Amino acid sequence: MRYGEEVRSGMDVKMSDAVINGINIHYREYGSGDPLLLIMGLSANADWWGEEFIQPLAERFHVVAYDNRGAGRSGKPEGPYPVPLMAEDAAGLMDHLGWESAHVLGASMGGMIAQELALNHPDRVRRLVLFCTNCGGQEQVLASPEVYALLHTPRDGVTSEDIARMSLPLLFPQRYIDENPQKMEEFLNAYLKAPIEPRCFVWQITGVSSWSCHSRLADLRHPTLIVTGTEDVLIPPPNSRILADAIPNSRLVQIEGAGHGFQSMFPEEVAAEVLAFLEG
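^ thats the sequence. predicted structure below, dont judge the formating
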């Protein structure tokens, strides 16, 4: 399953909602075992992980994926949404679940949230996995002006389908888009299930734009896996090297030919990498 198709009967999932920090947070539980929290990125929601990626993880772990504030089926309070606030949402969800600690995996903006969670609540994070993310601030390597122009295209008055189509080159290499039309249609169909509202997108991206943690990365003592795609145009691969150089107990994995959405492009391979790290 890719980017939010309806869950098939072969994979058990429990969908719930909880009031966290005064707003509704939608979350989903899969499998059993040690806890693993998945934190999604800018504008995305729990659907976007995809069954092909989650299922191998759920065979070994109690996996919880949730929608960040403003996204998917979670609450949409007035913003902006600073990264530290979204990290407190993650900690609050762990409280609700009764988890004293968990492995934490964050993708893109979710990786920023995961770093902030680990820095502010170090005892609550066991192992840390960072997908296609950066440290923010002046130390980050920015995307090209063309990518930023596409990302910041005004969304008011633009249909969700048009936004989804514009997003494809941000997530996948053009070659992959051309060679996988069916997967692109699956993405488009999934995007339309619970698209983020334009105002909430602005509040999320405003929170990300004002965030930085590079000066604190040396304080991260958690075993950390950092994964990037060599063709990621949204958060260029050098950002992962910056993280790997700054986080003491970290390992960097680069996926050849992969874009920002690499867990959708290569779900089984990426899940296997995560499992080997978490169980190592």
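Strands lie at 14-20, 23-30, 34-39, 61-66, 102-107, 125-131, 224-229, 250-255.
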